[in-house]
């Protein structure tokens, strides 16, 4: 199931911007840009599902909102701490959008 | 709470709603004090409807014996005039004495001193049982169609599953789960962790989450024993309430349910719907309580074939339905009883009703059962935030039974 979830990531956004630039200067057609994005969706879904092995845990002090609609979970949390083996990352506000992975939950900040 | 049981057909004519109830005690007059027959080892006789919520009702808990309804003199039976009751006292005194100690309508201080000695006898035979109100289910309507997709996408703390056709919205305080339908109908389950205890705190219903609230007087189908002051307060509240009598009644749990329902309606209103608060009614109140003994449910179900239904292969408990007060009880062999009834009062009355019936089939807990019980209690106690010890029965009491 290829979600277009990852288009709104840093990677996805930069790709989209680059494609838009190329369309602007008439180097590629919009149709081609669309095809590229679809390929991107497939690639990133596959990569995250198979190639990524690292695990990060996080703990939030408060879950502000949760939402479940169209099989998509959305969480809004505040004051979150991410922990990897030795790395820590602190964040004031966090939004998690999660689609059904039938295996792993995929996320996006 | 001392469980004192009510003889169903007899109502104290001095009930706060005596006029409304329209049932009068027989000519022999009802004695609220008949507890004293409990001294004979029989837990029968009249009660003040439980525990709960209000105040005094755990009558015969010495300290909470405030203003118990006076013995009737027939002339006063229809009048709820508390002032005059004091005069009655004199007349009734002899009769009181003759009947072995009744309960008079006195000021709290006097009552305590007078009743204290008599109550001691009752203490031993009447166990204290806490009723825990778990849930209140209510339903209401916002009187407008709701676009569930829209609510699901822009509401907070919502879940929308198309197969159910409804949006589930949860509230943190009071802990509530509301099911919202597109027609505008909403059913709301409010989790109320409320323990109806007896005794030590007359007039207060402790919400185990830490809020102590003065309980408003509930409408009881049986006599309600309470002080002048509290009744005054209640009457004033009814008068002050714009919506009239309807809004003023209800136990803390029922009021909380209403508050929760209103909060949900408000949330919907904030999503730009012309929501109104209509047709609020309490559907169910779920209460649980544990008897200090195990119950032989097979024999119990055999004795009460009309009202009880026991299908061990389907469900490990006996389902016992009673018509008045309307309630459904599930009785388990461990001694736990869950009651679903239309109001908190009904829950209390149902438990009072079932107590003697169940006691007949009581059996002492075996050591294994005790272990199980202790484990369950510890588990439950962990969840309840309560500064007091929340189980009033001590180990010794079990041994006695």
Write structural notes for this entry.
The complex is a heterodimer of chains A (109) and B (401). Chain A has 109 residues and is α+β, with helices and mostly antiparallel strands. Chain A is 33% helix and 34% strand. Chain A is built from two helices and three strands, in the order H-H-E-E-E. In chain A, strands 1-2-3 form a three-stranded antiparallel sheet, with no helix packed on it. In chain A, helix 1 (10-24) packs antiparallel against helix 2. The two termini of chain A are 20 Å apart. With 401 residues, chain B is an alpha+beta fold. Chain B is 32% helix and 20% strand. Chain B contains eleven helices and 14 strands. Chain B has a ten-stranded antiparallel sheet with strand order 2-3-4-5-1-8-13-12-11-10, with helices on one face. The relative contact order of chain B is 0.15. The model of chain B is unreliable at 1-90, 92-107, 116-125, 199-226, 244-248 and 385-401 (pLDDT under 50). Chain A binds chain B through residues 64-70, and chain B through 149, 152-153, 155-161. Strand 1 (57-69) of chain A pairs parallel with strand 2 (158-161) of chain B, so a sheet runs across the interface.
Brief descriptors of the model:
heterodimer, A: 109 residues, alpha+beta, 2 helices, 3 strands, 33% helix, B: 401 residues, ten-stranded antiparallel sheet, two-stranded antiparallel ribbon, 11 helices, elongated, disordered N terminus, disordered C terminus
Describe this structure in a few short sentences:
By secondary structure, chain A is an alpha+beta fold. Chain A has helices at 10-24, 30-50, and strands at 57-69, 72-83, 88-99. Chain A contains two helices and three strands.
Strand content of chain B: 15-25%
The largest sheet of chain A, given as strand count, sense and whether it forms a barrel, is: 3 strands, antiparallel
What is the distance, rounded to the nearest whole angstrom, between the alpha carbons of the first and last residues of chain A? 20 Å
Rough shape of chain A?
Answer: elongated
**Helicity range of the residues of chain B?**
25-40%
Mean pLDDT over the residues of chain B:
66
Give the overall form of chain B: elongated
| Euclidean distance between termini CA atoms of chain B | 17 Å
- Secondary-structure element order of chain A, as H and E? HHEEE
- Tell me the fraction of residues in β-strands of chain A, as a range: 25-35%
């Amino acid at each position: 199931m290829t979600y277009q979830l990852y288009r709104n990531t840093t990677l996805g956004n930069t790709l989209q911007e680059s494609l838009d630039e190329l369309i602007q200067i008439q180097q590629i057609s919009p149709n081609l840009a669309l095809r590229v994005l679809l390929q991107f969706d497939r690639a990133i879904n596959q990569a995250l599902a198979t190639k990524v092995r690292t695990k990060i845990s996080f703990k939030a002090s408060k879950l502000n909102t949760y939402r479940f609609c169209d099989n998509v979970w959305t969480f809004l949390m505040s004051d979150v701490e991410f922990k990897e083996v030795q790395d820590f990352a602190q964040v004031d506000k966090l939004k998690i959008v999660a689609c059904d992975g039938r295996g792993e939950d995929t996320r996006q900040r | 709470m001392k469980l004192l049981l009510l003889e169903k057909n007899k109502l104290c004519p001095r009930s706060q709603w005596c006029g409304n109830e329209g049932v009068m005690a027989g000519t022999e007059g009802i004695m609220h004090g008949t507890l004293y027959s409990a001294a004979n080892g029989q837990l029968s006789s009249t009660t003040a409807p439980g525990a709960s919520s209000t105040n005094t009702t755990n009558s015969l808990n010495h300290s909470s014996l405030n203003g118990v309804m006076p013995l009737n003199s027939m002339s006063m039976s229809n009048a709820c005039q508390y002032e005059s009751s004091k005069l009655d006292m004199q007349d009734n005194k002899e009769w009181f004495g003759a009947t072995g100690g009744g309960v008079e309508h006195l000021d709290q201080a006097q009552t305590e001193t007078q009743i204290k000695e008599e109550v001691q006898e009752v203490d031993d035979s009447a166990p204290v049982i806490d009723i825990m109100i778990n849930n209140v289910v209510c339903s209401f309507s916002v009187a407008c169609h709701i676009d569930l997709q829209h609510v699901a996408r822009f509401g907070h703390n919502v879940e929308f599953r198309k197969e159910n056709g409804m949006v589930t919205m949860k509230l943190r305080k009071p802990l509530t789960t509301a099911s919202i339908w597109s027609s505008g109908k909403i059913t709301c389950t409010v989790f109320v962790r409320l323990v109806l205890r007896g005794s030590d705190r007359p007039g207060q219903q402790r919400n185990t989450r830490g809020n102590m609230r003065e309980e408003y007087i509930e409408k009881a189908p049986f006599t309600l024993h309470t002080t002048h002051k509290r009744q005054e307060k209640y009457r004033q509240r009814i008068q002050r309430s714009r919506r009239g009598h309807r809004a003023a009644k209800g136990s803390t749990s029922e009021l909380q349910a209403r508050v929760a329902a209103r909060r949900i309606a408000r949330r919907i209103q904030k999503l730009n719907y012309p929501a109104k608060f209509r047709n609020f009614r309490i559907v169910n109140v779920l209460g649980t309580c544990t008897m200090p003994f195990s119950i032989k449910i097979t024999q119990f179900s055999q004795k009460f074939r009309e009202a009880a239904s026991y299908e061990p292969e389907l469900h490990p408990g006996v389902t016992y339905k009673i018509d008045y007060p309307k309630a459904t009880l599930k009785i388990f062999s461990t001694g736990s009883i869950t009651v679903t009834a239309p109001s908190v009062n009904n829950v209390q009355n149902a438990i009072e009703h079932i107590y003697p019936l169940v006691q007949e089939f009581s059996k002492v807990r075996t050591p294994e059962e005790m272990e199980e019980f202790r484990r369950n209690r510890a588990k439950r106690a962990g969840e309840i935030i309560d500064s007091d010890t929340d189980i009033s029965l001590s180990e010794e009491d079990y041994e006695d039974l």
